[in-house]
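[Meeting: bench + compute handoff]

Bench side (C.D.) handed over the final construct sequence. Compute side (W.E.) agreed to return the predicted structure before the next meeting so the bench team could plan truncations. Sequence as handed over:
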Amino acid sequence: MPDPLSAEPAAAVASASASRHGLRARLTVPVLAFGGILMAVMQTAVVPLLPDLPRLTGSSAGAVSWTVTATLLSGAVLTPVLGRAGDMYGKKRVLLLALCLMTTGSVLCALTSDIRVLIAARALQGAAAALIPLSISILRDVLPPERTASAVALMSSTVGIGAALGLPLAALIVQYADWHAMFWVSGALGAAGLALAWWAVDESAVRQPGRFDTLGALGLSTALVCLLLAVSQGGEWGWTSAPVLALFSGFAFVLALWWWQQLRVERPLVDLRLASRPRVALPHLTAFLVGFAFYGNSLVTAQLVQAPADTGYGLGLSIVGAGLCLLPSGVIMLLLSPVSARISTARGPRVTLVLGALVIAFGYGIRILDSHHLWVIILGGAIVSAGTALAYSALPTLILAAVPAGQTGSASGVNVLMRTIGQAVCSAAVAAVLVHHTRPVHGAPLPTLDGYLLAFAMAGAVALAGCAMALAIPKDRDSPGVGRWYRRRAGRDADRVLEGA
């Protein structure tokens, strides 16, 4: 069987590239990037509402927290499932489905004040998490080789760009308009993204036909729900409580059964034999660590700058001001995406990933040294985002170079899933640290500066662990760069590739 690096349907790619011209061809990358940014905006848009939602919906704070948990769970479950469906039935078709579910969820949120409907609608919005891996797979299939690296780097950076834009945008809408207006705006943007994607994006000719592994999808979904529910609710329910321990036990049991089933089915949801190879498994594990390290920056910074000045460290900023502090981070991620692509082409994505993890750790070092001055807080956060841009752009490139073309959607989906799990674990870990480092301020328990510094140290240490993991990834045969890999894509024989896939 040919090496996965050679499993590229270049004849189909060349044919698709030759047929693409004019405005539609030029807009493919911006339209897909718009979808990725919109996905990240959807995930953060509800954050400014959380303090007021119990009053607005007549529900408890615990019920309101599910507006975030539902999106996390559905996104984690649907990302690998829709990625595999894209490989089988057409990536554009499944991409449009994800956009449609996201837009429908936004409209339902705009129409209701019932917390039960709101949670269900937020679960629909979670389908947008699959947009990133599906878009990366489409870019690999339809773009000429010389444009792939920069386009994939931009697509990977949209997560940070959207997160940096979403918080201040949502806060401004909530502050000056009815809270439903935020969802009307997101619904309108989703409808625009759906129409643009239908018009500008070509369907990929690369497919891996077969019967969809429904049992595998159900097994993975059950395992992920058990894991993420335990992680996200452990702080509230108690880490040693019976429900949390039962969920962790259920995760381990179901995962073992799912793993056994995946090794025996003819067309598995996730090719575990391929995923167990070091060139695939290590980027997945690094994605988990980088996702953890990245999320600590956004999570802690917003809380720290909003803390009252009476704490001795807080700046007392509003939610809008806190969101604006994150804007430079989003701009830096946008500007660095072409730079990271050039580094990967010249030195290899492994080097870019190592560099990114080191930059993240350096950014947290700055945060530990000084978290009192606003300009230092913004600088440290921007450096963390710069490292994240480098790392996030390298991860999909490593995956694309290590798996057959017919499995790019599934493999990219698993990589994004690992980032999502890393963010969920980071949220739980940071919450546990801050809960154990509080002191009363005007009668209310607030985190101490030592708690925040410990959270920064934890995220920085995880970033260094990600660096070590990245160093363990086997070098590409065309090291130091991937330029030869991109160049040889266009010269592959399609029959040989299809036989290998």
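W.E. noted at the follow-up: Confidence is low (pLDDT under 50) at residues 1-20, 478-501. C.D. will use this when planning the next construct.
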